[in-house]
Write a structure and sequence with these properties.
Layout: H1 3-33, H2 45-49, H3 59-74, H4 79-98, H5 104-123, H6 128-137
C-alpha cells in the first residue's frame, strides 16, 4: 500500500470513530438537557431512530463542524473548496434554525461540541497499524 492510501484509511477510521462518539455524546447531552426546539414539532419515526428528539445541542451542527474540521486539517484542498466546506457547515447550521428544529444557541453549541470532539479524536489519533487491524477485523 502506498502512503496516501494508508493515510486515507487512517482518516476514514478516525472519522468513523468520531461520528460514533458524536452520536453518543449528542444523544446523552440531549437527554440531559431535554430542551425542545423553538416550535412544537412532533418527532417522526426517523427522529426516534436517530435519537434526535431534543434540540440542545444540535447534532447536525456538531457533525458538520467536526467533519469540516477533519477535511480542512487532513485533506489538501484548493482555497475555493475550503471556502465551500465552511459555507456548507454554516448552511447546515442555518437550515436547522430556519426549519424550526433548533434555537441559534443549539446550533452554536453544536458547532462547539463538534470542534471539541474533533480535538479529542485528534488526541487519540490511531496509528495506521491500528487502523489496518481494525479494518481487517471488519
Amino acid at each position: 500500500l502506498n502512503s496516501a492510501s494508508v493515510s486515507h484509511r487512517s482518516l476514514s477510521v478516525s472519522i468513523f470513530v468520531a461520528l460514533l462518539l458524536d452520536i453518543m455524546i449528542v444523544a446523552g447531552l440531549q437527554k440531559l438537557a431535554k430542551r425542545k426546539g423553538p416550535y412544537d414539532i412532533n418527532p417522526g419515526l426517523l427522529d426516534y431512530l436517530t435519537m434526535d428528539t431534543y434540540a440542545f445541542p444540535a447534532g447536525h451542527a456538531s457533525r458538520v463542524a467536526m467533519l469540516s474540521k477533519f477535511f480542512l486539517n487532513h485533506l489538501v484542498l484548493a482555497i475555493p473548496l475550503r471556502i465551500l466546506l465552511v459555507l456548507w457547515a454554516l448552511c447546515v447550521g442555518f437550515s436547522r434554525v430556519m426549519i424550526g428544529r433548533h434555537h441559534i444557541t443549539d446550533v452554536l453549541s453544536g458547532f462547539v461540541f463538534g470542534y471539541l470532539q474533533f480535538r479529542l479524536v485528534e488526541l487519540i489519533w490511531m496509528s495506521s497499524n491500528t487502523c489496518q487491524m481494525l479494518i481487517s477485523i471488519w
